[in-house]
Amino acid sequence: MIPLPLSLGSSSTIINRFSISSTTSTSIIPMLSLRFIRTSLLLSPNLLPSCSSSSPTLLPLSCKFRSTMSYSTPASSSNLVFRQLFEKESSTYTYLLADASHPDKPALLIDPVDKMVDRDISLIQELGLKLIYAMNTHVHADHVTGTGLLKKKVPGVKSVISTASGSKADLHVEPGDKIYIGDFFLEVRATPGHTSGCVTYVTGEGSGQPQPRMAFTGDALLIRGCGRTDFQGGSSQQLYNSVHSQIFTLPKDTLLYPAHDYRGFTVTTVGEEMQYNPRLTKDEVIIFSLRSVKLYSSEILLWPT
């Protein structure tokens, strides 16, 4: 497909390599011009054992306890609509972001769950938003994504996932791509290790963007833990390098929102995880020596003992 010029005033734009047009039942979304940007990512052979989610030890943490619908205070921006939503069976967080200042109030969902699609649509309608994108941080093993149902129930919605995931979607993103909703955008950062196609979505920097920044880390980085690495092309050393090169390089006050939590926490920061995360704070050489540590599995996680 031949790239087309960027149409100004569109309700949302995604910057990538392709050009796409889409329509909704009520209006036509302007043609999107997409271009490609790359960022480097340090990847290494898999040397770590299957490290995984949160440590059983509770460490100091400045977080609120979750509810079925958590209204955690996001980065400051009077125009940003933000909701953190919870699905209790798989302990999954879904995130809703929208630009309330734009006439169309364009919105996106990150990591929707199939069982909660009706809840998500109802909330979007109540807030008067227009859902543009249904995005995944990776291919999920513990629940079925809600993007397919959202596409059926909300005409014009585009599904988004990384090219590296190998999964089907309307839009495939690469490291450095930017996804726009109104004046806000999310930058794509590759954070493989839990799966080979994991990405983290980070809010933009600069005037008009949420401050402090926000990062939606999927299963790559959990609060005081990380995603398991023993399936779906997982790699412990790759995950360690991903987090240190793509997440821990963000400002220390960056708010981190994971795809899961099993202990009641909702949000953390880069600075907190650099200090307290038991899986990712050790020196690389020391961490890799844990290969000899015996592991046992629980229903969801693997814990070093």
In short:
The chain has five helices and 20 strands.
Question: What would you note in describing this structure?
Answer:
This protein is 13% helix and 29% strand. It is an alpha+beta fold and 305 residues long. The chain has a domain of 211 residues: Metallo-beta-lactamase, Chain A (4-Layer Sandwich), CATH 3.60.15.10. A 7-stranded mixed sheet has the order 1-11-12-13-14-17-18. The protein is globular, with a radius of gyration of 19 Å. The termini are far apart.
Look at the helices and sheets and give the structural class.
Answer: alpha+beta
Number of strands: 20
Q: Could you say what the CATH architecture of the domain at 80-290 is? A: 4-Layer Sandwich
Helix content: 10-25%
Radius of gyration: 19 Å
SSE blueprint and pairings:
Elements: E1 12-15, E2 19-23, E3 28-33, E4 69-70, E5 80-87, E6 92-99, E7 106-110, H1 117-126, E8 130-135, H2 147-153, E9 158-162, E10 171-173, E11 178-181, E12 184-190, E13 199-203, E14 214-218, E15 221-222, E16 225-226, H3 236-247, E17 255-258, E18 268-269, H4 270-276, H5 284-288, E19 295-297, E20 302-304
Cofactor: Fe(2+)
GO molecular function: metal ion binding; sulfur dioxygenase activity
Subcellular location: Mitochondrion
